[in-house]
Predict the structure.
Amino acid sequence: MDETNEIKKDIMPFITEKFSITEENLSIKAEQVDGMTNKNFHVTFFDTTNPDKKCDILYRKYGKVLDSTDHKPELYIMEFFSSKNEGPKVLYSSEKFRIVEYINNSTIIPLELRYDKKVLNEVNIILGKYSLISNIYKYSISSDLKIESFIKCDNEEKFIFPSIFDIYEKMLVKSKEKYNIFNKKFTEHFTKKNELNENLKNMKTKFDNYLNNHRKIFMSLFPKNGLFILCHNDCQRWNFLFTNIESNLMIIDHEYASMCLPGLDLCNYMNENSYYFYEDGKYECKKDEINFGFYYDQYLKYVDEFIKLNKDRINIDENKEFLELIKTKKYYINLHSINNIFWFLFCVINLDFENEFIKKTDHYFQYGYDRICYSELAQRTIELYDN
């Protein structure tokens, strides 16, 4: 079954109920628009007895980075933003796909506007609102690098979201499973071909080291105690839509949303701008564009906005030390390191030996290596501050 027929089969109950169009009279056109994990299609359909009345929806078929993904948190966030007319409405949802409102004349943040101050201010405002969706928690990490306590700061009853550590543990398990398969093929191929050059050998050594010691590295980067707020955790220009309503931004794709550190999302947006995926399938990391100081003023604006929005929900005096910490350059740069080490696992999960080294159609080996290098650069920068 081709994808258009599969989409038609999935959306037919929704169309019949909502628009009273029968299958015999349905004409449908589906065009894939984007998506690294999930498949998104702009679907136009109409009743052949009334062809002038066309309708548009966005059909999203869930991918499978993790073996089990609970979409309830994501749907809750979408409803929060759509109720304020700041996000697309969910029209239909199932375990395998969902149908959402198609935002006409919308586009992702264009590459040339990714550093635009007006755009960055809009991103800050949206991320500030994100923190209002959930409760705020105080956490502490024990000496053996495990969560020791997780205490709610405010008395409001809100939707309970997973923590970043819940998602992290699932990704770590999945990445080790996938890497075992990749590693076996890698070893077999390069043993036979004897083509393992020094550069590739060094990259592979880094991969092995970071994956084998990943939990220790990841947890050691976290402040040992502080605050957890709701974060998008995949904040990048591809997940923001410019709309035709005064060019306001909408944030989309909330499947990795979880409780995490204040400021992480903005740093995610910042460092994602160094990774380029072109329409022709090429990829590169522009290391010369990594500039921790460039965004720091914008980051401080985010922190001020976060504190202002949540001053009645957190005890400012009780959390003064952490609120001062998150304003420091050291904390800010460390967020870049945490983010890249986390998303290194995504690269490992998507490794496919045949694609990486034979077809050369995917770039996750290089992408994962670049994530490691970015994180190491952040840590070296912090050492310079310490010295």
Q: What stands out?
A: Residues 229 and 262 are 6 Å apart (CA to CA). The chain has twelve helices and 14 strands.
